[in-house]
Design a protein that fits this description.
Belongs to the DNA polymerase type-X family. This protein is an alpha+beta fold. The structure holds a DNA duplex (11 and 8 nucleotides).
DNA sequence: CTCAGGCGTCG
DNA sequence: CGACGCCT
């Protein structure tokens, strides 16, 4: 986002820059600033909330396809003008109130307006790694002070410097430790936790971010947190576990997930979540609809606007032509529960056998594999991810070959009653998505089938099996060698945007017969899929003298 | 510096 | 066909 904004702003006639990200330790101040802003709206003639929020959140999500750079810049200018207008109207009484609450200027906390050419901003931004958060804080505090001085030269200096310093000086880990301790004191280790409720909270908080289209990152935090709890959750769902204790929860979710943790803490201590419980009926409905496959933020809002409040409302509304439900929605509604459910490994093994067996029987030249966490021996999966190759499909752009191959595959699997065309979500030449069910099983499972261009197969296996950190490491390694690694291959990146088969410079694509060769090419010890787990490969690579500095930060 | 890229749907 | 939304 920031790179994008910087690029966007570089030629802009308006001298303004966005100062973010903040060190994490300032999040608390940041969020209370937001709350304060809402409060202050009544007092402030200019819509502060909108001004500040639009700048931070709306620009990166504007559709680049449909807008010219000029219109984006115009919008940007407009926001800047609003902020300026607001700054000009901050009067001393407002300032009094803020300082009384030990707050620095909220909106200036969220972003700083500065003159182009002020030398410190770039260094401040580059120092924004967690360890150097203090550098940013100092730079920011200085700038804050400058801004405040500018607005109110007479009375602001001392009052504002202090609170902002305090706001930034507490280190992140201190806050986390403090919180953790406070929580441990209040909740007994063997207290029983309503995991289902916690999972639902995390899910809804994630969806809420998605609904309001704020940053992708914020939603990802909740997602990651809930991933950490999947193993526990799955055990409960499978009936292997009847209750979960607080100690187990603490074990599963590292304290680094500070935002999710604060929400969990609230739930465990007070039994509610204030952010979720205060939502309007419409927002609650929108969150529910978001869970349906193929309903995203824009349809969700539209459906709610048309009067939908529950899942059952949708079909009647569609019949009365108030909204339009497409195939995928109907399937998503019919299998709403199944789609959210995790799949036990035993069933994944059965899928593996059934899918392979069916394909091999139909054509011995078909090679296939189940990817994702299943391949890393995980004890559960969230969907069935199948990749297939056949020598009849070699070139990525040969749609004919891909389409006929895909048709054959789907026909075979439907013949075996693993798939059925009623539950087809998506069916293109290279990608199929739908629901699969093992004969005799009551649950449908989400399945994705991908066709790999013949020579990309090993790369796809590697790229789609993870784990994420390993992929990051390997890509960095490739990059250091001036190469580019992705799920299609390893080669020299081709920058000109025409006539490049797979995005690589012709002739530089390394053809490999298996994943091991890719590790060899990059000079890393080979890892079997089940070893591609950070806890396993990390120490081993360390011993082998691999440079892991890039991976150190999450 | 991190999905891009593939799909369906609608106009 | 292009634009858009949604998903992985």
């Amino acid at each position: 986002m920031h790179a994008y904004l910087r690029r966007l702003c570089a030629p802009s006639p308006v001298p303004i820059r966005l100062l973010s990200p903040f060190p994490r330790s300032s999040h608390r101040g940041y969020f209370s600033s937001v709350r304060l802003l809402e409060e202050m709206r009544a007092d402030a003639p200019v819509k502060i909330k909108i001004a500040y929020r639009r700048i931070i959140t709306s620009l990166p999500r504007l559709s680049l396809k449909s807008r010219t750079k000029a219109s984006l810049l115009a919008e940007w200018d407009l926001e800047v003008a609003r902020v300026r207008a607001w700054s000009a109207r901050v009067d001393s009484s407002l300032l009094e109130r803020w300082t009384a609450k030990k707050m620095c200027l909220p909106s200036v906390t969220a972003f700083a307006v500065e003159q182009e050419g002020a030398p410190k901003s770039t260094t401040a931004r580059q120092e924004s790694t967690p360890s150097k958060g203090a550098g940013v804080a100092t730079a920011l505090t200085t700038r804050l002070q400058g801004e405040v001085d500018h607005l109110h030269p007479s009375n602001s200096r001392q009052r504002l410097l202090q609170p902002s310093k305090r706001l930034f000086s507490t280190s992140h880990s201190n806050i986390i430790e403090g919180r953790k301790q406070a929580l441990t004191e209040r909740i007994a280790a063997d207290a029983v936790v309503d995991l289902q409720q916690v999972m639902a909270d995390l899910r809804d908080l994630e969806l809420l971010e998605k609904l309001h289209k704020t940053t992708v990152k914020a939603a990802a935090g909740f997602k990651d947190a809930s991933r950490c709890l999947y193993p526990l959750w799955h055990d409960v769902d499978q009936g292997k576990k009847s209750k979960v204790t607080f100690a187990e929860l603490q074990e599963a979710l590292p304290p680094i997930y500070s935002v999710p943790w604060t929400h969990i803490a609230e739930r465990l201590t007070s039994g509610t979540n204030s952010k979720l419980s205060t939502l309007s009926e419409k927002d609650k409905a929108a969150l529910l609809l978001l869970r349906v496959y193929n309903i995203g933020s824009s349809r969700s809002e539209a459906f709610v606007a048309a009067g939908a409040r529950t899942l059952e409302d949708l079909e009647p509304l569609a019949r009365r032509k108030k909204i339009s439900l497409v195939r995928a929605h109907k399937i998503g509604l019919r299998h709403f529960d199944d789609i959210e459910r995790l799949i036990p490994r035993s069933e994944m093994m059965a899928f593996d056998a059934a899918l392979r067996g069916a394909l091999r029987k139909a054509d011995p030249l078909l090679e296939c594999e189940l990817l994702g966490s299943f391949r890393r021996q995980a004890s559960f999966s969230s969907d069935v991810d199948l990749v297939v190759r056949h020598k009849s499909f070699v070139n990525k752009d040969d749609e004919e070959a891909a389409a006929s191959l895909m048709r054959r595959i789907v026909e075979v699997l439907e013949g075996e009653n693993l798939l059925d065309d009623e539950n087809r979500l998506m069916f293109g030449p290279k990608k199929y998505a739908g629901l699969a069910r093992l004969p005799g099983n009551k649950h449908y499972r989400r399945i994705d089938i991908r066709l790999a261009p013949y020579h990309s197969y090993p790369y796809l296996l590697l790229g789609c099996s993870g784990d994420a950190l390993l992929m990051k490491l390997l890509r960095h390694a490739a990059k250091k060698r001036g190469l580019c690694l992705n799920e299609y291959g390893l080669g020299e990146k081709y920058t000109a945007d025409d006539q490049n088969p797979n995005g690589f410079k012709p002739g530089t694509l390394r053809v490999v017969k298996d994943e091991r060769e890719i590790f060899d090419l990059l000079g890393f010890p080979y890892l079997t899929p089940k070893e591609r787990d950070y806890a396993v490969w990390r120490p081993r690579y360390e011993r082998a003298g691999v440079d892991l500095s890039h991976v150190h930060k999450l």
